Amino acid sequence: MRKNKKTEIKKELRVTGASYRDGYTLHLVFSDGVERDVDFTKALLAFAKGSYGKYKEMQYFKQFKIENGNVVWGRDWDLIFPVDDLYKGRISC
Predict the structure, then answer these.
(1) How far apart are CA 12 and CA 32, in angstroms?
(2) Which of 57, 86, 89 is nearest to 70 (CA)?
(3) How many C-alpha atoms does 3 have within 13 Å on its Cβ side?
(4) How many other CB atoms are there within 10 angstroms of residue 54's CB atom?
């Protein structure tokens, strides 16, 4: 049975799994089954400033979690990056 492209529902891409690799690299698993290692080094240097600079310290960097299909740091999502960028394996800075 052929599906009509107009009736197909595009599913939202989500992060479904994440594990620490080394340095500032996480291994991410996406809702479509794709897996990739993402290095957050440049993004942390560009975005983790002021009170968010603590995420450059390894003990805080490793405290990431998955919420609502994204990788986040902090109780109030102090750091969060676009899922599309994570999927591509590079974060725009």
Answers:
(1) 9
(2) 86
(3) 6
(4) 15
Report how far residue 21's alpha carbon sits from residue 42's, in angstroms, rounded to the nearest whole number: 16
Dist CA 6 CA 33 (whole Å): 24
As beta bridge partners, residue 19 has: 27
Give the domain CATH number at 38: 3.30.2020
pLDDT in tens, 31-61: 999 999 999 999 999 888 898 999 999 999 9
Global pTM reads: 0.84
Whether 58 is in a domain gets the answer yes
Residues present in the chain in total? 93
Please calculate the CA angle 21-65-74 and round it to the nearest 5 degrees. Answer: 115
Residue 5 lies in a domain: no
